[in-house]
Specification:
- With 266 residues, this protein is of the alpha+beta class.
- The chain has 2 domains: 16-79, Orthogonal Bundle (Multidrug-efflux Transporter Regulator, Chain: A, Domain 2); 130-265, Multidrug-efflux Transporter 1 Regulator Bmrr, Chain A.
- It is 39% helix and 26% strand.
- It contains 7 helices and 11 strands.
- The chain has an 8-stranded antiparallel beta sheet.
- A hairpin with a 6-residue loop joins strand 2 and strand 3.
- Helix 4 packs across helix 5.
- The radius of gyration is 26 Å and the shape is elongated.
């Protein structure tokens, strides 16, 4: 990873600049430079004990610029410190931050699509509903728990942990990733992600419940997922049934959507 700031040829890189002049050149408030010093990201090259004057080397302008860019991108100070350290840790941190921004972009695109639907006054999506008998099956699982607004992030993290556990155990996944969710959502959502695998050793296994269920596939964003749930519950009401937890979600390959199952008793 390489980074360079534009430094005037008239300013030798080893020249010392008072904090005010340094702030002018890197286009940051003095208060921001003091904050960077306080959290350990960018400290003055020297501090005069008698006067308290802070002096920076001109070569530190590149670091100040890099920190400012990363802060604009929403990178936390702890991760910025890893980038400044350089080497493999810096590259790994930047890749993680890229994935974070990519997830945020996908979420924003879904939200835009939902807003476009509302602006166009389109009829809510119609769902094809099926009723079938789910068969009990044993799957590998990884538990998750998260505040209601953070459940998507928690599910993605749990899938990553389960993927790593399956790999360590020497097995492979034989079907779609999935997740279980309670019928009655609370401030904290608890469940587990699951995957069918070709072996059991070294993994936490549970048996997914069977029985009659109403199912559908949702192909929109997560922001409109409630429409699919409404359709499923309406079908259970039409059948004179009572919904049974947990709800099962199966995550189909990209572009194919998400399959929902809600079991019921009559």
């Amino acid at each position: 990873m390489r980074h360079a700031a534009v430094v005037s040829d008239a300013v030798p890189l080893d020249q010392h600049l008072l904090i005010g002049e340094f702030a002018q050149r890197c286009r940051l408030p003095v208060s921001t430079l003091r904050y960077y010093d306080r959290i350990g990201l960018l400290s003055p090259a020297e501090v005069d004990e008698a006067s308290g004057y802070r002096r920076y080397r001109a070569e530190q302008l590149a670091t100040a610029e890099l920190i400012a860019r990363l802060r604009t991108l929403g990178v936390a100070p702890g991760q910025i410190a890893q980038v400044l350290a350089g080497g493999e840790a810096a590259s790994s941190t930047l890749l993680r931050e890229r994935r974070r921004v990519s997830r945020e972009l996908e979420r924003s695109q879904r939200q835009l699509a939902e807003l476009d639907d509302l602006l166009a006054a389109e009829t809510p999506a119609r769902y094809t509903l099926t009723t079938a008998e789910l068969t009990e099956r044993q799957v590998a699982v990884q538990a998750f728990a998260a505040p209601f607004p953070d459940q998507e992030t928690a599910v993605l993290r749990a899938i990553g942990e389960l993927r790593a556990a399956i790999r360590r155990a020497g097995h492979r996944r034989t079907g779609s990733w999935g997740g279980t969710f309670p019928l009655d959502l609370a401030d904290t959502v608890e469940g587990f992600v699951f995957a069918p695998v070709d072996g059991y050793g070294g993994l936490t296994m549970v048996v997914l419940p069977g029985g009659p269920a109403v199912s559908t596939v949702h192909r929109g964003g997560l922001d409109s997922l409630a429409l699919a749930y409404l359709a499923l519950f309406a079908e259970i009401d039409r059948l004179g049934g009572t919904a049974q937890g947990p709800v099962l979600e199966e995550y189909l390959p990209r572009g194919e959507g998400l399959r929902l199952h809600i079991r019921f008793t009559r």
